[in-house]
TrEMBL record:
Protein name, UniProt field: Monkey-king
Taxon lineage: Eukaryota, Metazoa, Ecdysozoa, Arthropoda, Hexapoda
Organism: Drosophila mauritiana (Fruit fly)
Amino acid sequence: MPASASESTSPPGDGDGNLVLCMVCAAPFQSMQDCLAHELLKHASKPQKQLRQRLNAITKIFNSAQSQSERHELREALEKCGHLRTVLNFFAIDLEKMKTCFGHVRNCIEKEMKGKVRVFPFGSLV
């Protein structure tokens, strides 16, 4: 009786004397199915496990006390810069506002000091 097409094209290692070797660790198996099951069970989780370990290490660094304090300091500095930027934007937008404010401050200082002080541009006092 002739062999069917599936029997004549069976993958290597499925016969009696042929062994299939694992592509990762070269362990011998009787069938390709056993070899694939072994690879999935033993070797498929290693990249995921290594990735998880790396992510956990990075998370530890980000959650450390030093990192938290550095982030807090940075956040405070950025808030201060934001306030300064708001003030600068307020005056930089309109030159007339800045002239008016300078005139108001100059008048207040001169009034308080009653002629003893004269204020010049850039905050010079004489």
